[in-house]
Amino acid sequence: MFEGKTVAVVVPCYNEATQVEKVLATMPGFVDLVLVVDDRSTDGTAEVVRRSVAERGGDDRVVLIEHERNRGVGAAICTGYKEARSRRIDVTAVMAGDAQMDPDQLDALVAPVARSQADYAKANRLFYQGAWGSIPRHRYLGNALLSMLTKIASGYWHVADSQTGYTAIGLDALGLVDLDAVYPRYGYPNDLLVRLNVFDLRVADVHLRPVYNVGEQSKMRLWRVVPRMTWLIFTRFLWRMKEKYVVRDFHPLVLFYGAAAFTGVMGVGFFIRLVYVWIATGLIPEINALVWALCAISSTQFGLFAMWFDMEVNRHLNGGIGLRPGRPPAPRPSRTGGRTPAAPDPHEPSGSEGDAA
Ligand SMILES: Nc1nc2c(ncn2[C@@H]2O[C@H](COP(=O)(O)OP(=O)(O)O)[C@@H](O)[C@H]2O)c(=O)[nH]1
Ligand SMILES: [Mg+2]
Asked: 0.90 cut: is pTM over it?
């Protein structure tokens, strides 16, 4: 229990026979239930889990769920979520089976949800001091790109590191999201954020230390995953616009996004024509150039205004940035630009990573 709230941890595993034992052995004492979901591993992960539990005298916190076929990490997490929901667990966290999630930092994620400051808390490794040096460069850049796109798609503009799997969610949120519809593979955190936003749920972005080189081997093939996720994020963005600003409520920002897309496509058309005429005749068609410039400027303006509106609509869903246990939500800068000094945090090295952004 954490401050009187029950806590479960879902551990999705696919071929983690060498790693999963470490995850189970270092599980914090306040965790009431560990839901290991084996996704049809071929390296005996499930046997390792059973043996590890037996060796520790039958840890009755651990429940092993086995998928009959490989369904993907997102689907495995949703299997765990459903089990936690049916047992009415207050806070359900996710820790990967490859030991990349530091158990000593779990309380930082559970706290905002247990204290009802947020409905969902997720780690943000990108802003942690020294992250640029400790996260493999290509992973950092790929993550930063997807995080930027996910801000636009999800409406959680204060959230970065959209690709982290280290999260905690509250029971109410689990009751709202359609767990059967969540994207089943690596894009699930992006999809989940979009779904949470449609229900106006608050998200905390907790700055945590990244963990690499603990014997894990990523199964992610970036060149395959990034294009697929970019497409997923785009389609989820369209779904959120429809669901949040047309079906459930109306906001003119959808018209702004629509106008940005329309003038953007027109601009591309006029630009292609301009280049074609220029090459064919050696002359730049002046009216064509003018219309192209008008389309480009309009598209940019419409797009930026739409984002600004979206930011304002979702501002109240910020469940905290850089929260640590024992520390109240970071103060917001006042309208005059002044800041209330935050209490010093014994968990954090001195630096700016714990500040409100
Ligand atoms: N259940 C399940 N888990 C998976 C699958 N693929 C990866 N995982 C788990 O998801 C977690 C993160 O995967 P990983 O490949 O390490 O991703 P990375 O840490 O972002 O590079 C690990 O615990 C994996 O065991 C899958 O197909 N099914
Ligand atoms: Mg990993």
From this structure: no
Nearest CA-CA partner of 284 in 274, 294, 271, 293: 274
pLDDT tens column, 286-330: 999 999 999 999 999 999 999 999 999 999 999 988 766 544 445
In sequence order, which residues have a C-beta less than 8 Å from that of residue 239 and are 6 or more positions away?
194
pLDDT digits (tens, 9 = 90+) for 256-265: 999 999 999 9
Q: Which ligand ends up closest to the CA of 79? A: 1
Ligand 1 lined by 220 (C-beta under 6 Å) = yes
Binding site membership of 100 for ligand 1 (Cβ less than 6 Å): yes
As given in the structure block, the two tokens for residue 337 are: 């630009």
Distances (CA, A) of 279 to 244, 271, 272, 282, 295: 45, 12, 11, 5, 22
Buried b (16+ CB within 10 A) or exposed e, 107-139: bbbbbbbbbebbbbbbbbbbbbbebeeebeeeb
Nearest C-alpha to atom 5 of ligand 1 is from which residue?
73
* Contact 72 CB / ligand 1 (< 6 Å): yes
Q: Smallest Cα–Cα separation from 205: which of 166, 244, 237?
A: 166
- The answer on pLDDT for 179 being more than 50 is yes
Query: Cβ(357)–Cβ(156) under 8 Å?
Result: no
